[in-house]
Amino acid sequence: MLFLTTAIGYRLGESPDPSNPFDWLGLAFLLWSLPGLVNLGFGRRWGQRPRLVGAGVLVAAGLLDLVWSGTFLGPVFEFALVGGLLYVLAHLGVSLLLAGATAAPGCEMRSIPHVLGRMRGREAAEYPCPGGLSRLDRWERQRRED
């Protein structure tokens, strides 16, 4: 936790360092994860639009930095990048905690709609996880049925 608070406290007032590979990895992770996170997590079929919106926010932040400080990679860009990463990691964390606490069926990313559906007296649709995790979902389902 100390690393996170130190990194955020340092990063939010600073510009990203183009030579730091973690800035580029964070940017890649953010843009890669947004479509799956939003589409699975909220049960939407928006395709690549979440990635385009995320990229648009980052470009707008970079353009603001370009006008204000003369560089595209300034503090506003870093704020948008860290804010996006915090959203993604918080959404993933909450989804995993809810999935563990409620035994939400299917992909863990569907645990938020699952809990909201149960609160409203409705069932949320079960989606298999992307990649090889669908086998784990089948195993979990078989264990529940036994």
From the spread of the alpha carbons, the general shape counts as elongated
Query: What's the domain count?
Result: 1
How far apart the termini lie comes to 40 Å
Rounded Rg: 18 Å
Average pLDDT over all residues: 80
Strand content: under 5%
Q: What is the string of helix and strand elements?
A: HHHHHH
Query: Could you estimate the helical fraction of the residues in percent?
Result: over 70%
Helical run tally: 6
Spans of at least 5 consecutive residues whose pLDDT stays below 50 are 1-6
- Class of secondary structure makeup: mainly alpha
Q: How many strands in all?
A: 0
Notes on the protein architecture:
- By secondary structure, the protein is mostly helical.
- The protein has six helices and no strands.
- The chain has helices at 2-11, 21-42, 49-69, 75-102, 111-119, 133-145.
- It is elongated.
- Residues 1-6 have low confidence and may be disordered.
Short description:
With 146 residues, the protein is mainly α.
Tags for this entry?
single chain, about 150 residues, mainly alpha
Write the layout of secondary structure elements.
Layout: H1 2-11, H2 21-42, H3 49-69, H4 75-102, H5 111-119, H6 133-145
Helix pairs in contact: 2-3, 2-4, 3-4
